[in-house]
Structures are given as C-alpha cells and as structure tokens.
Structures
1.
Amino acid sequence: MAGEEHIRQAYASILSGDYEQAIRSFEQAIAAEPGNPAYHHKCSITCMRSALWTKALRHAEEAVRLAPDQTDYRYHLASLQARIAAEEAKNELAAADPDYASVIGRLKLALELDPLLDEAWLLMAAAYGALGRFDEAAQAAREALRLNPAHGEAKRLFADYRRRHRRKQKRTLH
C-alpha cells in the first residue's frame, strides 16, 4: 500500500478520535516512504497532540532534516521544543523542592522558541511568585493574559501578584 493510502487512513482515524491508530497509520506511511518529510511532520503533530513528546520530537527533527527550507517544519519543531521545555519546567515545579533557577531557565528557553506559549508565561508567573518576585510574576501573568484574555488562572494570578507586589512596596517604603 502506498504512503498516501496510509495518510488517508490516519486522517480517518483522527476524525473518529482514534489517535493511536492515526499514529500507527502515519508510521506505516513513513515505512512506505521514509524520505517523505510531510509524513514525518504529520506524524509529529499527532504525537504532540497525544503528549508523546519523544516520538513527536524525533519525527519533527526528521522532517526538518529532510526539508530544512520548509518553514512550517522548522516552526513546528521550535514550538514542540518549547512545549517540551515547559513540560519539564512544570514537572520541576511540582517537585518537593523545585530548583527555581532551573525552572526559570527552561521557561526562558521555551519562550525564546515560542513567545506565544501562554502556558510557559503562566508557569513563569508561578515560579517568580514562589520566589517572592511579585513584580516579575505579575508581568508574566499579564503576558499570559494578553495571549489568552479568557484564561481564568492568568487573571487570578495577575491580580494576586500585582496586589502582593503593591503590598511589598508599601512595606519597603515604611
């Protein structure tokens, strides 16, 4: 069976909500035509949506290797790398004793790769807030809110950190 038939099957699986089968179909298309960067790209997107980070990264890197001039592939790879960095930072924040410098470093990397990643801005707000750096926390929450005005958690954090920053400034002045 040609790669295109597997791609059609993959899209049919996506439409029916069976992402595992879609990934298997994409992988069959790749096996049939391993040098086709579009197949790797499509597989990577579906893996990313399923939080299969390692597999998504491998296929995104292969798509870029096969077609380095393809802007969409490079953008997807950067976006994926940003999401992975944000996930790592989120996991570190959930640890018993987070290394905030490491968390902030990962989030800065994520935001260099994808400045539109509102989740990274929100995590940055939480990291700065935990360190008592309320002005920076409020700025990060504001950025998350600017990117996603309906984000309830960003609204709450922005108001909270802005209030805490003002209180801290008043204590410093008195």
2.
Amino acid sequence: MSATTKPSDAPEPQSKEQRLKQFLRSKADDGEMYFKSKFIADEVDLSAKEIGALMVKLKDSATDLEIEKWSYTSATTWRVCPA
C-alpha cells in the first residue's frame, strides 16, 4: 500500500517576518506611520519582543520600506514609510 499526498489548496502559513512586513506595508501605504511594538502586537499575532527583533532585521532587508528607530519613551517608537 503506497501513501500519496494531495496538493493542498490552503496557502502556506506566512513566516513571522512576512506577516509583520505585510502589516507594515498596508499601514504605510497612506504615508508614514509611527508605532510602539506593544500597541500592534495583537494585530500581527506576535509579542512586542518579537516585533522589536524583527524590526531590526526588516530595517536592512525591506527595500520597499523605510524603517527608522524614532525615539524611546518607555518603549521604542518606530517610524515606517514607503521607500
């Protein structure tokens, strides 16, 4: 008896980085956006700590977004706008 696999119609789950990048792109479409990780954590289903670590990565890798550490008052504020 052989096992066969059927291709799934369901899309592959996005990585955490892809999910955050997609969220930032959609929000930055209207212009620049300022945020603290803890305030968007629920929307992207990530912890504030995960978002902070991913923002550092995306700052260098997301060529279509301009990402800047803006200020620090009780948590880092990030500035994101289309590149």
3.
Amino acid sequence: MEIALIAHDGKKAEMVNFLMKHKDALNNNKITFVATGTTGKYAEQTGLTVTRYLSGPLGGDAQIAARVVEGKTNMVFFFRDPMGKHPHEPDVNMLLRLCDVHNIPLATNPATAEMLLDHLK
C-alpha cells in the first residue's frame, strides 16, 4: 500500500502531528510513503521512510498525480490550506480530480485521514 503525503505550508505542522499520533499504525501496515519535497522532509523527521518528489509548486503535485494514474499510489493524504493562495492551484485541482477519476481515497484533513487509517486496521 502506497500513501502519498502532501501538505500546504500552513498545514505542515498538522501533518507532522497527525503522523506522530498515528506512527504505530502507519509502521505496522507495510505502508510505503511518497511525498512532495518539503512535506516529505518533515515526514522523515517523524521517523518514517519517505520517497520525496519535487516541491508542489515545482511539479511535485503533478508527479504524485502521475503515480495515481499509474496505479502506484493507493491513498492520498493532502492537508490543504483552504485559506491560503497557491500558485500551483491548477496542479492541485488536477490531483484531486484524478483521485476521483481513479477512485483513490483522498483525505484533505486529519479527521478524514483518521477514518481512512481505521479502515487499514
């Protein structure tokens, strides 16, 4: 099972807190992680092994979207900041649309991510 981790700058701390809170569950399910560049750097600080792609604004969201299309990514945790401006919003929308097209579970906040994790137990 591959889970993609993405968080806008205003949500990176929330992602780290989520990963720390659920570290045991995430380590016990033979899950591999991919992430956009900066989010991946933060996720690695929690002790998880993460394959990092480019930063979102530099194409990382598009790289994760490609993995969704290829059937490699099985779930996406994308903690979005709905109050911030994001110059790469077209890539964000593409990723969200492709998750819907390919029926990939997508959590845009910790509450939904927790529900998806409960499914893995």
4.
Amino acid sequence: MRYVALLRGINVNPRSQMAMADLRALLEGLGHTGVRTHLRSGNAVFTGDEAPRERVAATIEQRITEELGMEVAVVVRTAGELRAVVEENPLEVRDPAKFAVVFLAAEPDRRALEGIDPASYAPEEMRVGRRELYMYFPDGLGRPKLPPLLGKRSSAVATMRNWNTVTKLLALAED
C-alpha cells in the first residue's frame, strides 16, 4: 500500500526542527520502502503493509517521540485517498500558492463548521470535504482569518498544505 504522511508543524520554529534524512531513516526503520520526502515541512511518501491509516500514523508518531524526542501529530492518507482529495476539490484553484487543503485526522464536525459565518472570513473561502477542508486565501497565507476561527471550533488533529504541495505529493505517491 502506498501512503502519504503529513507531519504537523515541522521546521516552523527552532523546537520543531527535523531533518528529512532522519524522517526517511525513521520510516525505513519501520519497514517501509520507497520512502521519499518533499520539502522540509514533513511530507513523506512510502510503501508499507496494508494497515488502517490511523495505526500507521500512531506508529510514526510513537517512533518520532522515541527516536527524535519530539511530539508530532501525523496525518496519513493512502495514495488513492489523496487522489480523491484532488479529484473532489469543490473550489476553483485560481492560484495554487493561495489555495490549501487542511487534512484532518478524522471526519470534520460539520455542525461546528456550519456555525462559522462566512462573512467573518470573507474574502477567504472554505468548503468541507470528507476528511479535508478546502480553502482559498486570495490575500495569501501570511495572515489568514479562517485558520484561527477553525482552531477555536475544533481540537481535531489537522495540518495544512498548499495546492502545489498536494499535487506534488500525489505525483510522488503515484510514481
């Protein structure tokens, strides 16, 4: 089974530094093959035995804690699930650098999300997917309004990637 692991908050501050060579070695140490990383933000593609993605994520999180001494949330998708994320995108990608997908570890709390008034984050846009949130930030990702609003309404494990990264990870997963 081909998997994509998305690590939350990697290399964004001095306490979250992780070399991608260390991540590759860690994944290979878990028995995964064909391990590739993309960028320095904790994106990895690998092949492993078929297992529930939650178990794959938990195993990676545990090994990172044991070997690297870091507490890192990991969200995992199969290559097929990532393909569906791209194909089921409900928004127009006007600028891939300003378009992002928030990957959730579990299904979103739709009631909580419906309670957010779109006027409070306009002109930003958001649509809810299966276990993803699709977002467009016309003013860029520098100081978006939407992520802080979501953080107040949800404690779910989540990590965001821009569209360029999502599509590159899909290409790596299907390569």
